[in-house]
Specification:
Elements (H helix, E strand, L loop, with lengths): L5 H18 L11 E4 L13 E5 L2 E5 L16 E4 L16 E3 L18 E5 L2 E8 L4 E8 L1 H4 L4 H6 L2 H8 L6 E4 L11 E5 L2 E3 L5 E3 L7 E5 L12 E4 L4 E4 L10 E8 L5 E8 L10 E5 L4 E4 L7 E2 L2 E2 L11 E5 L8 E5 L10 E5 L4 E5 L11 E8 L7 E11 L12 E9 L9
Antiparallel strand pairs: 1-28, 2-3, 3-4, 4-5, 6-7, 7-8, 8-9, 10-13, 11-12, 13-14, 14-15, 16-17, 17-18, 18-19, 20-21, 22-23, 23-24, 24-25, 26-27, 27-28
Length: about 425
């Protein structure tokens, strides 16, 4: 990592000392911070795991996924639902509009293959949503779809609902349908890849303006995953909304990793945005943790997600080699207060653990475990709500929704599936009955 000023070095020492004080204690005796609240009706879809989510203009779009308990094609989905906040709440209440269904992805892609899927990736880029790759219960996919919220405004949901199958295909093929197929993913067909978007430029938490990509354009990055014979991937590709381009491989093959975009110090000691990829599964849980610099097209290895002692600092990262987890980033009001989180999932299984990452000093602390039923393959999103403690400001609230205890394979009916949604307050004490 780059050298910092003496002031930040002192903060780092104090922070690491604080982490050592808590992490060296037995976790059963710790009072972990964080409070999960059941938001009940925030997602209107059916129970599922392996869904995707993207957020545009403070509206979350949640869809696809699978429920292998159900016999019909193991119920892979193309449907999508929205979750949006009700603004103007001045008392700290987290409220939503009634969740609504939007136009589903077309049932078939241009090759006539069913586009229902689980284990896909999704992201928002330049005001549009993108969904691609995944598994439809029969074959692995590399097709990609673009969602335009402007075209959604003119979508006649009632006409579509009442149309025959043939008419629905006609509506889906029209130029004004909200979804259209774009160029296929440049890599192999796969499921359980990761995706993240790095803005070309951005205002950082310290007020500086950073260029984050060499071209200065907003770019999505997609990579890793596994193919139809479970071979894990390490290749990565960038996407600008039209074209794909190969970028540097992450090196260590994996699937079911987690990815997020957060601040970090560059070689000049200034803040810029990086893409972070954590954990995953290969022949065993992956403990590698890397960040991608889109200015230099390079990956940097960070501290492993493993229990190890470095000097006098025992990080005590038990249960942090996480696969099938979901990730989100929350921005605070103050400089250097951005934090990333991994929740649910586990070392090759399902769980409730939640960990917070400090991107400025590359360390994790354990937070209150997810208070819903243990799961993996959940989705997460962050919405802005009026801040009751600072009039006129917005606060960011993260949500975790859906998930399963199952494997989402094409055969077998094992596992439970969920449609519940929870929001998380990282710095409140746990209240088990809310």
């Amino acid at each position: 990592m780059a050298k910092h000023s003496k002031y930040f070095a002192l903060l780092a020492i104090l922070s690491l000392g604080a982490v050592c004080f808590t992490s060296c204690e037995d976790e059963d005796n710790e009072e972990l911070m964080g409070n999960w609240v059941d938001s009940r009706t925030a997602f209107a879809g059916s129970e599922r795991g392996g869904a995707v989510c993207f957020t545009i203009d403070n509206v979350a779009y949640i869809g696809t996924g699978a429920n292998t308990i159900n016999p019909e094609n193991r119920d892979r989905y193309t449907d999508f639902f929205t979750c949006r906040p009700v603004l103007g709440q001045g008392n700290g209440t987290i409220a939503y509009s009634a969740p609504g269904a939007i136009a589903p992805m077309p049932k078939y892609n241009k090759d006539g293959v069913t586009s229902a899927r689980n284990g896909a990736v999704a992201f928002a880029l330049n005001g549009k949503g993108y969904v691609g790759t995944g598994y439809n219960g029969i074959t692995y996919l590399k097709d990609f779809w673009e969602f335009d919220p402007e075209r959604q405004k003119s979508f006649d949901a009632l006409e579509y609902k009442n149309a025959s199958d043939a008419k629905k295909r006609e509506i889906e093929a029209s130029d004004n349908y909200p979804w259209k197929q774009v160029k296929d993913y440049e890599g192999d067909t796969c499921r359980y890849a990761v995706a993240f978007v790095i803005p070309g430029t951005s205002v950082m938490s310290d007020g500086t303006i950073a260029q984050n990509t060499k071209s200065g354009k907003d770019l999505a990055f997609v990579g890793t995953g596994e193919d139809c014979i479970s071979i894990k991937k390490s290749d990565f590709y960038s996407f600008d909304g039209e074209n794909w381009e190969s970028v540097t491989s992450i090196g260590e093959p994996r699937a079911q990793a987690a990815a997020f975009v957060a601040e970090g110090y560059n070689a000049e000691g200034k803040l810029q945005l990086y893409g972070y990829v954590a954990g995953g599964i290969a022949s065993k849980p992956v403990i590698g943790f890397q960040r991608y610099n889109a200015m230099t097209n390079e990956w940097e290895h960070l501290n492993d997600l493993a229990d190890q002692t470095i000097g006098s600092f025992d990080d005590d990262y038990r249960n942090l080699a996480i696969s099938g987890s979901t990730s989100f980033v929350v921005n605070g009001r103050d400089p250097y207060s951005q934090r990333a989180y991994l929740a649910t999932g586990g070392p090759g299984t399902y769980g409730t653990y939640c960990w917070e990452y400090n991107p400025y000093y590359d360390y994790w602390i354990q937070k209150t475990s997810f208070e819903g039923t243990a799961r993996r393959f959940a989705v997460s999103f962050v919405l802005q709500f009026p801040n009751p403690w600072h009039d006129g400001e917005q606060m960011e609230v993260p949500f975790v929704a859906t998930g399963t205890t199952g494997s989402l394979n094409s055969v077998g009916v094992e596992g439970n599936f969920f449609s519940d949604t929870w929001y998380f307050r990282p710095y409140e004490s746990k209240e088990p009955l809310d």
